[in-house]
């Protein structure tokens, strides 16, 4: 017998009840796709070819997504801004049955990290109910502010960074000089980095991979307290899905690079000129799923490793509906993984 709640959110399919909304079973299925992408990227770690790594991850993720029981549409993907291989916006994924979902993908968040053999590269998928994700694909970059629960109702992206640091320190009950802020190490952030240090806080400069940076800033007892600065808008949407499960704070402002891109954003109905997108504007509601598998080692998850006849992966699954973070450690038989399809 199906409960009333399940009955309202399900439909009969050949005598079988299938959920109309993303659920924990879908989350576990999606892990297979991020595991596949991470494993396929391994031969390219440290080889200096980020597009080859991204292409291998994209192909693996696309192949595994076709087997997943959901009707997904990619609302925001990765690749357009640097002409890399991609799962394209508007692409349908899944086997067409089950819940209808918006999907955000980043087969490798941190392609440069992967190519250089550095830490914190991830394979990522985020899903939510159909029609709930902001389609920010026409503007490729977003200015973001992310913290854990202590920042909710406390910090605001419109305030000077020094004021936000002082407010967060007070909310956390620790001195300013113990606050650590993650920032992508880019020339555009030179002034921001200087202001963080002038406020008395420390910085953790990231070479790439701001999804991991945002999530680590929002996690309980993490080594960083805040993640700020301009990164990819796809990463902003993906991070928002994770923050819903962590109870943290995220805000974003779209950051067009030129007048042409700004006009494309306006034509797409996006709000620019400093408009602040709150968490519910980026992804509406709490029925979100975020899945990530480590490509290289990092603070969030361990990277793929191969020992003898086994390949080992570590993944995290965050569900906004239940507010849970689960870790999944998997052992894959190399002989089965590498055999022809």
Description:
It contains eleven helices and 16 strands. It has 341 residues and is an alpha+beta fold. Strands 3, 4, 5, 6, 13, 14, 15 and 16 form an eight-stranded mixed sheet that branches. It has a six-stranded mixed sheet with strand order 9-8-10-7-11-12, with helices on both faces. A hairpin with a 4-residue loop joins strand 15 (310-319) and strand 16 (324-333). The radius of gyration is 20 Å and the shape is globular. The model is unreliable at 1-18 (pLDDT under 50).
The general outline is globular
Distance between the termini: 38 Å
Question: For the report, how would you describe the main beta sheet?
Answer: 8 strands, mixed
Provide the low-confidence segments as ranges. Answer: 1-18
Our Rg estimate from Cα atoms comes to 20 Å
Please, what is the average pLDDT?
Answer: 88
Range of helix content: 25-40%
Oligomer: single chain
Q: What structural class do helix, strand and pairing data support?
A: alpha+beta
* Helical segment count: 11
Using DSSP, what is the number of strands? Answer: 16
As a percent range, the share of strand residues is: 25-35%
- Taken in chain order, the helices and strands follow as HEEHHEEEHEEHEHEHEHEHEHEEEEH
């Amino acid at each position: 017998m199906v409960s009333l709640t399940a009955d309202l959110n399900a439909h009969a399919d050949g005598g079988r009840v299938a959920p109309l909304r993303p659920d924990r079973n879908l989350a576990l299925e999606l892990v297979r796709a991020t595991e596949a992408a991470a494993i396929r990227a391994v031969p390219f770690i440290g080889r200096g070819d980020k597009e080859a790594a991204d292409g291998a991850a994209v192909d693996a993720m696309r192949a595994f997504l076709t087997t997943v029981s959901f009707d997904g549409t990619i609302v925001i993907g990765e690749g357009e801004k640097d002409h890399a291989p991609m799962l394209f916006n508007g692409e349908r994924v899944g086997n067409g049955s089950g819940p209808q979902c918006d999907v955000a993908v980043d087969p490798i968040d941190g392609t440069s990290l992967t190519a250089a053999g550095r830490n914190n590269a991830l394979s990522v998928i985020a899903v939510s109910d159909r029609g709930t994700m902001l389609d920010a694909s026409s503007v490729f970059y977003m200015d973001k502010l992310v913290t854990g629960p202590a920042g909710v109702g406390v910090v605001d992206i419109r305030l000077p960074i020094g004021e936000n640091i002082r407010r967060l320190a007070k909310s956390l009950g620790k001195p300013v000089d113990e606050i650590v802020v993650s920032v992508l190490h880019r020339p555009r952030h030179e002034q921001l980095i200087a202001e963080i240090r002038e406020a008395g806080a420390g910085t953790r400069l990231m070479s790439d991979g701001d999804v991991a940076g945002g999530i680590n800033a929002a996690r309980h007892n993490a080594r960083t307290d805040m993640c700020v600065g301009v990164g990819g808008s796809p990463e902003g949407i993906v991070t928002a899905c994770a923050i819903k499960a962590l109870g943290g704070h995220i805000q974003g402002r779209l950051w067009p690079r030129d007048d042409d891109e700004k006009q494309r954003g306006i034509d797409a109905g996006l709000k620019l000129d400093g408009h602040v997108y709150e968490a519910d504007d980026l992804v509406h509601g709490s029925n979100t799923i975020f899945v990530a598998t480590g490509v290289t080692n990092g603070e969030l998850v361990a990277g793929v490793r191969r020992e003898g006849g086994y390949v080992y992966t570590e993944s995290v699954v965050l569900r906004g509906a239940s507010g849970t973070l689960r870790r999944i450690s998997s052992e894959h038989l190399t002989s089965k993984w590498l055999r022809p399809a």
